[in-house]
Amino acid sequence: MRQSDSTFSEKLTKIGNGERLGTEQIALIESRFRSRAWCKVNVPATVRLFHRNHDVDAYNNNTFIPEFENIADDKMIGYNTLTKVATARRNLHKMSIVESGGLPYSLKLAVGYPYMITMNLDVEDALVNGVIGTLKYIEYLTEDEQVTIYGTTEVDVEPQPSTSTRIRKRVRLWLEFPNPSMGQLCRVKAKPHVMFKRDVLYLKWTPIVTRAANIPLGGNIKCRRNQFTVVSASAITIHKSQGGTFDEVVFNYDKSQQIQLVYVALSRVTSIDGLYLTNDKDDFKFYHGRGSTAPTVKDIRDEYDRMANHRLPTLSMQARAFCK
């Protein structure tokens, strides 16, 4: 059970099954509604859950003033004319994060806000695609530290026009993850460095460095991109949040959302005290506790009933019956 509050868990089960909630149960959920202005002031760094990618992008692009913007180190290879490389570069900048190998062109960074890992860095260490941590520190590296981490102080990047205002600095990010098992091996390796800088670093923080990947752009042209494998997770889609657990979430609720989607969003949080609901009209009304007769919900409910009435005997059940 994801929820530490059994009463809250029971309400979620009813919602997921399309059952009708009591008046007091609906009132309890509606008591978690807040205005967006209130959430902006009181829970500014709490993860927002939206249904549409458009809303996610809009929120992530405007939620905070970045302390540092890390521009990807891009090197175009495999081209033979300037026209072809110009076309390839235009196509590159139109790509989504997924299409560019999980490496964004521009990464806006602010301490205290959540970021999501975009590729599997170390499966054994639980640093995998979709894991979310809070950015705790942006470390600017010395030349000696750059050699230790990257093997060189040179930045592998295609020469830019003299009018370019991009300033490249080697930095390292330190994230704190909600589960201590995430990044545990990485933290052990980083311990000597943390102890050396214990005035600014903490042992529970996990270091994240840039990674390089080749992005195919058609023909023989590729972009060799070097960037951090994280993106802002101040807001994520409900679908992307599946499998995640949060102490607090702000869910942008709407009565038109499918009941399964509402269930997923509500069940991301461990306790109802960490749940905040917003909606576009600020009417603060929860519509999904009235019972549902939708075919998909009915099918789910019928399947649960079938499983309850036709339980398969397990070895433990047989052992208990034998002991009796």
UniProtKB/TrEMBL annotation:
Gene3D superfamilies: P-loop containing nucleotide triphosphate hydrolases. Residues 233-268 form the UvrD-like helicase C-terminal domain. The lineage of its organism: Eukaryota, Metazoa, Ecdysozoa, Arthropoda, Chelicerata. It holds the Pfam family UvrD_C_2. This is UvrD-like helicase C-terminal domain-containing protein. InterPro entries: P-loop_NTPase, PIF1_helicase, UvrD-like_helicase_C. SUPFAM superfamilies: P-loop containing nucleoside triphosphate hydrolases.
